[in-house]
Automatic annotation (TrEMBL):
<dbReference type="GO" id="GO:0004000">
    <property type="term" value="F:adenosine deaminase activity"/>
</dbReference>
<keyword id="KW-0964">Secreted</keyword>
<dbReference type="InterPro" id="IPR002909">
    <property type="entry name" value="IPT_dom"/>
</dbReference>
<dbReference type="InterPro" id="IPR006330">
    <property type="entry name" value="Ado/ade_deaminase"/>
</dbReference>
<feature type="domain" description="IPT/TIG">
    <location>
        <begin position="535"/>
        <end position="627"/>
    </location>
</feature>
<dbReference type="InterPro" id="IPR014756">
    <property type="entry name" value="Ig_E-set"/>
</dbReference>
<dbReference type="Pfam" id="PF08451">
    <property type="entry name" value="A_deaminase_N"/>
</dbReference>
<feature type="domain" description="Adenosine/AMP deaminase N-terminal">
    <location>
        <begin position="15"/>
        <end position="98"/>
    </location>
</feature>
<dbReference type="InterPro" id="IPR001365">
    <property type="entry name" value="A_deaminase_dom"/>
</dbReference>
<feature type="domain" description="Adenosine deaminase">
    <location>
        <begin position="387"/>
        <end position="505"/>
    </location>
</feature>
<dbReference type="GO" id="GO:0005615">
    <property type="term" value="C:extracellular space"/>
</dbReference>
<dbReference type="Pfam" id="PF00962">
    <property type="entry name" value="A_deaminase"/>
</dbReference>
<comment type="similarity">
    <text>Belongs to the metallo-dependent hydrolases superfamily. Adenosine and AMP deaminases family. ADGF subfamily.</text>
</comment>
<dbReference type="GO" id="GO:0006154">
    <property type="term" value="P:adenosine catabolic process"/>
</dbReference>
<feature type="signal peptide">
    <location>
        <begin position="1"/>
        <end position="17"/>
    </location>
</feature>
<dbReference type="GO" id="GO:0046103">
    <property type="term" value="P:inosine biosynthetic process"/>
</dbReference>
<keyword id="KW-0479">Metal-binding</keyword>
């Protein structure tokens, strides 16, 4: 409290009218700097305290990040096209540790584009449906897949078209954005329109036409849950179309090429099949938390269809509250209808006292507020303006929210109302909204105190098949530490669509996974021998402090990883205090208050040294620290 009061006085009440020494200004500068750092940390409102074991893991992660940075800074991966560095990311030690990190939930996922296309093809090629799998090559770079008994003109049977034992190697490249991007898209990394033009067709290449077959749906869902848990994602929310229905192949249905829908218009059979898979999976894997679904309409739909879909979702939400989370609008936001365009549809629900949670894609744009990209003359509303209407309509979360960066007042509203932003770092880069993860606006939202969750959007169709890639990009590019990662994981549960009881159960399961991660990662960190590392102590700041009270001292240098899993001790003359590893270049410690020196009249200059191994060895330097009675 003494330090805080003194710091506040120095920061806001210091009078510059007197003449002081250089040491005085250095000391007061250090107090002001420390205070700003503390106040900034408190501003976000998150718990940044770490236990002793968590501090060890935090130090280890900081070391791994520093090592990764040293080896990649000439071509820093979060600033580069993801498709060029996937293998390098997945072979890195940072990725290996983050894969084990308990991420909580992933809340922004498009259902048909989460499971690896390679795994989906394995499911199909090992089933009897292989005989009914056809492909169409009208677009030479994007082959469309579907099941038929009697195929339409232009479709070829997969089983008869490839001499290779497995046609997967031929099919897969045509289904992934990382494979089909042409030079125009590659050379225009911030042109979202070009990127969307090449991404949009892929949503239908190996999507609902395959996944909605009654014999594939359950296997696909099980693969999704398994893939999530393999990367320590314990909870999922996916987005599915309001028109989703199961079908089978029936030889009598020649007019529909053998397809016969067995589901009702609400898609309840598919929903029950998925629900059954989730329940069975939790029995086998009790550490898994659960699954919910957001149902969507397309932004280009008519008002009539939106109204129809809204009532369909309300019906399902009331009938299956344990699995239906709410409603969204999807597709390229810059080209779709605005939320304001559909206000009559939403207001009709309000007038009828029908409540439906909204999870809108909102502000997924890099266009300024005063430029409209709408293709609808009757709806010339800018994409960024959707932020206002999403807030007014009571959205529980906002998808992407790139445009929020230009609206600091709305950031404050989201912070106050606790409306979370669903950040999808890799998606935002691949679709041309963020060229460099170091400049992703979500870190600004997070530091400001707006709730942020990290998700993966369409990892399978993008071609990177991973939940952890997004966490890697954020960890390396946003300046995150373990406390930040922990808060992002907690946010994914706190701002999920789960009920309060479900959230309590979820937090208990996540906490168990967290404790396991901390213990296992601590063991790994403490198993590394850093004794051959030679630290270099470059400078300390400040170099003077009061005898009567401790002073926070920052120690700058190199190769401080020697202190990972060790107790750092700073030595001021013959007095020691505990230090904290911040990074390979920074350690902080406090000068001890020295009662024995208080009777001396003048300053006391003492040598400064530091131990990185619990006090067994002290590294000396030519640096000194001065204990003084008064600063003048």
């Amino acid at each position: 409290m003494t330090y805080l009061c003194l710091g506040l006085y120095l920061l806001f009440g210091f009078v510059h009218g007197h003449s002081h020494t250089t040491a005085f200004y250095e000391y007061t500068h250090s107090l002001k700097r420390n205070l700003l750092l503390e106040l900034e940390k408190e501003f976000a409102g998150w718990d940044t305290q770490l236990s002793e074991d968590e501090e060890i893991v935090n130090s280890y992660l900081a070391y791994l990040k520093w090592r990764e940075f040293q080896s990649t800074k000439a071509s820093f991966i979060p600033s580069r096209p993801i498709q060029e560095y996937l293998a390098e990311i997945q072979s890195s030690k940072v990725y290996e540790v983050l894969k084990k990190f308990p991420k909580g939930g992933s809340l922004h996922l498009h259902h048909n584009h989460v499971v690896s296309k390679s795994i989906l093809l394995d499911i199909i090629l090992s089933s009897s449906l292989y005989d009914n799998l056809y492909f169409k090559t009208s677009d030479p770079n994007r082959w469309k897949l579907d099941f038929f008994i009697n195929p339409p003109i232009g479709w070829s049977k997969v089983k008869e078209s490839f001499t290779d034992d497995s046609p997967k190697n031929f099919l897969l490249p045509h289904l992934l954005f990382t494979s089909v991007m042409d030079d125009k898209a590659i050379h225009n990394p911030t042109d979202s329109s070009i990127r969307w033009q090449q991404m949009t067709p892929l949503f239908d290449r190996a999507g609902a036409s395959l996944v909605d077959h009654a014999n594939i749906t359950s296997k696909h869902m099980e693969a999704m849950l398994k893939g999530a848990l393999d990367e320590n994602v314990q909870y999922l929310e996916t987005k599915t179309s309001a028109g989703r229905k199961l079908y089978v192949l029936d030889p009598s249905q020649t007019e529909t090429n053998g397809k016969r829908f067995i589901d009702d218009d609400n898609g309840e059979m598919e929903l029950k099949a998925v629900d059954s898979v989730v329940k069975d999976f939790i029995i086998k894997h009790p550490e898994f938390i659960g699954y919910k679904r957001v149902i969507y309409s397309y932004r280009g739909a008519s008002k009539v269809n939106i109204t129809k879909d809204l009532y369909k979702v309300i019906n399902l939400y009331e009938k299956y509250p344990h699995i239906i989370a709410g409603y969204d609008l999807v597709a390229e936001e810059d080209l779709g209808h605005s939320l304001l365009f559909f206000q009559d549809d939403f207001n009709t629900l309000l007038a009828a006292h029908d409540k439906l949670p909204y999870f809108f894609h909102t502000g997924e744009t890099n266009w300024p507020d005063d430029l409209s990209t709408s293709v609808y003359p009757e709806d010339p509303i800018s994409t960024a303006a959707n932020l206002y209407d999403a807030i007014i309509l009571g959205a529980k979360r906002i998808g992407h929210g790139i445009a929020l960066a230009n609206h600091p007042y709305l950031m404050e509203v989201l912070k106050r109302k606790k409306i979370a932003i669903e950040a999808n770092p890799v998606s935002n880069m691949m679709l041309g909204y963020v060229q460099d993860q170091r400049h992703h606006p979500a870190i600004t939202y997070f530091r400001y105190g707006v709730p942020v969750v990290i998700s993966a959007d369409d990892p399978a169709t993008f071609g990177y098949d991973s939940f952890t890639i997004d966490w890697y990009e954020a960890f390396m590019g946003w300046g995150l530490d373990l406390a930040d990662l922990r808060q992002l994981a907690i946010n994914s549960l706190q701002y999920s669509a789960m009920s309060l009881d479900e959230k309590r159960n979820a937090y208990a399961k996540w906490s168990a996974a967290w404790k396991k991660f901390i213990q296992e990662t601590k063991k790994e960190a403490c198993g590394i021998d850093f004794r051959d590392t030679k630290p270099f102590i470059g400078s300390i700041f400040p170099k003077e402090g009061y005898i009567s009270i401790g002073t926070k001292v920052q120690v700058f240098g190199q190769n401080f990883e020697r202190s990972v899993c060790q107790t750092v001790l700073c030595k001021f003359g013959d007095k020691t205090s505990k230090g904290r590893y911040v990074s390979n270049n920074l350690i902080t410690c406090h000068s001890p208050g020295n009662a024995r020196l208080q009777k001396s009249r003048g300053p006391r200059v003492v040598p400064f040294s530091i131990s990185f191994d619990n006090g067994n060895t002290f590294f000396s330097s030519n640096l000194t620290f001065s204990f003084v009675h008064n600063m003048k």
